[in-house]
Design brief:
homodimer; Aminopeptidase; Alpha-Beta Plaits; four-stranded antiparallel sheet; 35% helix
Chain lengths: 456, 456
């Protein structure tokens, strides 16, 4: 019953890829004020495409930050309504010199499309739009009702998304949410995500002397802020990857033996090879898969103090700063975890320095859905069919804060249908998306849109 | 017997200050290639001044780096010969925005001359040249033989100085060396330095994954290099300021009780006030004065990893680096100490990362001279006389590597006659030199040149 739609996609491969490349060539870097107009341009691209397809009430909605794009098609009587979410903004592309082709000049090499945003998330957003186009051009209708909400601030924390969702709860009401902003555990290995991690963050600054000091004249009188920061950071996590902040694990939900087993059966990346490390490191008592999927983490994302240039500058630096984020699991409250870390740091300030902690406003709870839900099972079936391999069910180490917000606000299941791969270099130079995932993924979406029309 | 010389200095105050300001207005920043011509210009200024005074064999000597300036006056029969060393290069002036007047537009405010190099070391080099001018203009001769050697690479490690000293050992032979590149323990408190610290350095880099990674997708599989570096750094020095590298203190010369007492009697800076810290920190079991003067230090001079911009970037950084230098005391060999730190770090590499250590080539042994030596006692007497206060004998926490080189190559006493103050902001914005120290200091030099003519 979906032959015509699939044929349309097949026959229009070239022009659809060209259109995606046009989308990817817009440098919609949301974190960089210099790209504000580019972000708007990418949003406008989405809005125009929605109109072309035949969506109604298409709007570019101002938010105070970067705009949201909304559109809806609601003529599938008796069929369920999907709320499709995605984002059209991208991470910064620097360091540019590490890219083999320009990040905003999409290039196909070895069956992959290279560009910033190819996988995260423009490429995957585009797949849904192209599938809708194919349905409309062939059948003149979609099998389900679709409300599309594509934001431009995902890479900077989706600050304006939740207020928008809250303020338009009735308008956005749906039977389920559909998001393609994730990946498979391995290339060609269909994967259903049934859980995501939460998130909290902070920045620690150790303030020592009021200026950089001569290390000879002041060494022995003045505590070194970089050394004091090292002591603080080293006290947060031990060498066995166990977070040593008191109470950090208190509310972590126990991990049933059978779920652990499933996690360990899920194919894993060959990390030493894929990222060039001597060996993996995971929390004492847990495997890498278990730690990534179901145990919380605490990571230093950045750290700086004093002289960073060539050679030597014999100073005691004035300050030292570290940025820290945690990924959280079901049971952990982001605010409580942030409090515990801040309290611990503030109650262990070394003598001779001052310590200030800046709390990151952005946070999210972890999310988990029943993997046996028919909406997930139908997606898994189509994935298995298209990729010729049994779909695995996994939890993700990453966070998609909007998922938790949708869960809380609408109380509907969220289907995370991700087509990326671990080799996509998300947030890194040479981001890419395999073309076979792009094409097979659209096939999955065509059939899934068809199948879920029956679920109510 | 020195009345005429002192009167000359008195009568020519204005013009001498003007000439020093001309010297200070040349931005002879040796570390910055953009200032190469300025460094040469400052060297030329020195050479021209020496010729004007009546020095012979004045040369600007190419070194491969910045040139050395040499000149000599050797007509004081039967009198001893002084080897006067100084430097005409300066530290970079950035951050410029923290200066209250332009760093290379010398300005007098509140009795101080503000300029980069005012104290370190152009101002103090100039005092000797002006005193020689005064002697030549009044007496037609100097009381002692003087060999002048002024380099342009002190602030970048004096790489070419030692080869020059070695290659011209006979030409440079002297009875003692004279250096004014240091300061007093407090403004107006005459001070004789009888010891300096040595120096060694290294840079530690922890290499993790081959690129910055998404902290959600890889947290739990990949060791964080910034955290691994924090563990390494925290293992080098404890919270009581004791260096915990095995054997670090093995060769440190014992500190006699009476020397400790003298050190503690020396007036100290009010550090919490002068540099804005909650309290001082010194090695367990030692006072601040003892630690600064006679105990070795290990300082982190700079540290960097991952994301340093605004807000959050949820990555596991690819690498983390720290720059470390140590100040050493008599007994410690720089090479041995460097070896011990490198061995310790290399034998404690956390699993899952690689660690590389870059050894700083630049190093120096500590230096100490008998404080009862008549050359020091005569200087102390003149200092006490001019400043109206008993001279204190102290050891410096800083390093002047040339002192150790002169000691080793020539085996002569080095007289460190410093006129700076702790408020001079060496290596920092708003470097200054008090005018009364400038004038009284020249008075000291006039009488000292006269007095040491008798010492043989």
């Amino acid at each position: 019953m979906t032959e015509a739609v699939l044929k349309y996609l097949e026959e229009n491969r070239e022009s659809l890829l060209g259109k995606l490349e046009e989308f990817l060539s817009i440098p919609s870097v949301s974190t960089d004020g210099a790209h504000k107009q580019d972000v708007l341009k990418a949003g406008t691209f989405v809005a125009n495409y929605l109109k072309e397809i035949g969506f109604q009430s298409v709007e570019i909605i101002e938010t105070g930050g970067h705009p949201l794009v909304y559109g809806e098609w609601l003529e599938a009587k008796d069929a369920p309504t999907a709320l499709f979410y995605g984002h059209y903004d991208v991470q910064p592309a620097d360091p540019y010199e590490l890219w083999d082709s320009e990040p905003f000049e999409p290039t196909v090499r070895n069956g992959k499309l290279f560009a910033r945003g190819a996988s995260d998330d423009k490429g995957q957003v585009f797949m849904h739009l192209a599938v809708c186009e194919a349905y409309m051009k062939t059948e003149g209708r979609l099998p389900v009702n679709v409300k599309v909400c594509i934001e431009g601030e995902e890479e900077i924390g989706s600050e304006n998304l939740v207020p928008f969702l809250k303020n338009h709860k009735d308008k956005l009401a749906a039977d389920f949410a559909l998001i393609s902003d994730s990946g498979m555990v391995a290339k060609g290995q269909p994967t259903m995500l049934y859980g995501l991690k939460g998130f909290t963050g902070l920045e620690v600054t150790v303030k020592g002397p009021n200026r950089d000091l001569h290390s000879g004249l002041y060494g022995g009188a003045v505590k070194n802020p970089a050394m004091a920061l090292s002591h603080i950071l080293a006290s947060l996590k031990n060498d066995q990857e166990v977070v040593t902040v008191p109470g950090f694990y208190d509310d972590v939900e126990a991990l049933p033996a059978e779920e652990r087993q499933l996690m360990n059966e899920a194919p894993g990346e060959n990390y030493p090879e894929s990222v060039g490390i001597p060996q993996t490191s995971s929390e004492q008592g847990y495997t890498v898969n278990e730690h990534i999927m179901a145990r919380p983490t605490l990571e230093i994302n950045g750290m700086y103090s004093g002289y960073q240039g060539e050679g030597t500058k014999t100073i005691i630096p004035s300050t030292a700063t570290a940025k820290i984020t945690c990924r959280l699991v079901p049971g952990q409250d982001p605010q409580t975890i942030q409090d515990k870390i801040v309290d611990y740091i503030e109650s262990h300030v070394p003598d001779g320095v001052e310590v200030s902690v800046k709390r990151e406003a952005l946070s999210a709870k972890a999310y988990k859905v029943d993997p046996d839900h028919p909406l997930l099972q139908k997606a898994a079936d189509q994935l298995s069919e298209a990729f010729g391999k049994e779909t695995v069910f996994v939890r993700l180490g990453g966070s998609i804060p909007v998922v938790e917000s949708i869960d809380q606000l609408f109380n509907i299941p969220v289907v995370l249908l991700g087509f990326g791969t671990p080799e996509d270099n998300l947030h890194s130079p040479n981001e890419s998306f395999p073309l076979d995932h792009f094409h097979k993924g659209m096939e999955v979406l065509v059939n899934y849109y068809h199948d879920v029309a029956q679920v109510k």
